[in-house]
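User: My collaborator sent over this chain with a note saying "see what the structure looks like." That's all I know about it. Can you take a look?
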Amino acid sequence: MDYPPDCVAWRSRDSLPATDVPPFDWSARPVSARSEPRLEWTRSLDATPPSDHRIWLRCTTAVRFDERRTIAVTDPHADRHLGEFDLRFSYPCQPFELQLDRSAVSSVCEGGIGLTQITGSTPTWVIAEGPTGDHDQMLTPHLLIAPASVSDADKERAMTATMQSAASQQPFGWMEGCVLDGMLAMATCADDAADWRAAAIDHLERYLGPNGDLAIDPGGIESMLMLGAFTDVWPTRSVTDRLLAHTLSQKRNDGIIRGGAVTAEGAYTVAYPLMRYAVTRDDPGVGREAIRQLIARVDHLPVADDLYLRSHEDGSRTFKNWSRAYAWYMLGIARTFRLLAATPDTGDWNRLRSSVSVERLRGAWDDINDLVIGHRQPAGLWACFTDDPETGVETSGSAGIAAAIGHAGLSGLTDRDDAYRIATSTYHELVEYVTPDGLLTCVAQHNAGGESLQRNGYRVIAQYGLGLLTNLRAVIEQFDRDVGADSVRR
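Assistant: Without extra context I'll predict from the sequence alone. Here is the result:
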């Protein structure tokens, strides 16, 4: 694999608007109809890679945009059109790639690559210089030259390297929360647990200012998944308490912590991190709040044999049977139950564990578990809309659903053997969608583009999907460790 360090020739009259800031003070450069950026490599590349290798061009967006854009990729040396990037509703730190024809490799390696934006209302800004670690260069423009076929073991090693670097960094909120939850799950069971924890701390520190507080606005309820990671890493720091207060401040008069709609995301981004805080700080009161937030989702989102992502104030519901809605809803219940199962054998916690609400959640889990398993595709994954196979396989939702089932098996919420079988078979299918350098493909874009973007088969690379896959990997690691421990005890 090759990661030419960065682009060295940018010619542009465009300037970044003051309202748009590249992540973490990394530098960004524009691609537009007016600019003539050329990516030129700072070291010599092998112009004749082995015949079993493929070549991809990668760039990473630096600034969010909510529209569809097309960028032409050319070989300026040979005056040749190489293909186009099709970008839709992208966000900071999202890689995009284009496989190049082998016949163009020699010229591209010698003369570089040209980029010109064909459609789009404003220039597309890409990360030009980011973090300095070797693996972190995945975020800057580069060529990936790798074998067409890579073993699962090599992919898993690449996934580890990617996750434990800045290459998996996402914007503060649910996206980064998925990455951190995967990291910190591995930190509880992997042989290299210390490395996973150190990587999580590196990620978290990028959001802090000199005074140790958040350097950014924490945002709405979807961002509160970050409370779980802050609680895990820095349970007694004031920044963690402020995130808790920010979460609770978003409770409406109906007692639900929400924005406008009641959402499935809130099961995972609100209830679960509240329980993480409650267990870590031994605060059953916050634990009761976590259960209340789950019950609110149970009351509003499942209807007959369907699950909705959103229940709106006017009574309407949207995103019926969307795969990530199942992932958020099920992860929220399963992760919360696993934490609750480990609470002290004391009065307040015992009363919570035996409460009517917790029993309701057990029933809700059984219902949703049966429903989603019935929607599983023959190959072992789930479609983007689970009841509509025509919408195509969606990897992030599949990873999240399987991870949730695995966590439920570990906590006794569902049958342990069935959970392990589903977790392992799903994981092995998903590894097929991992790139040679450890990124997850075939992820449905975040849902800013509405249901139409989710239904039309458009897929992207997304590190939050890799975080969910890593969460699933951690579940399997824990199952395997438990089996080993049982063997030793016997």
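A starting point for your reply to your collaborator: Residues 5-9 have pLDDT under 50 and may be disordered.
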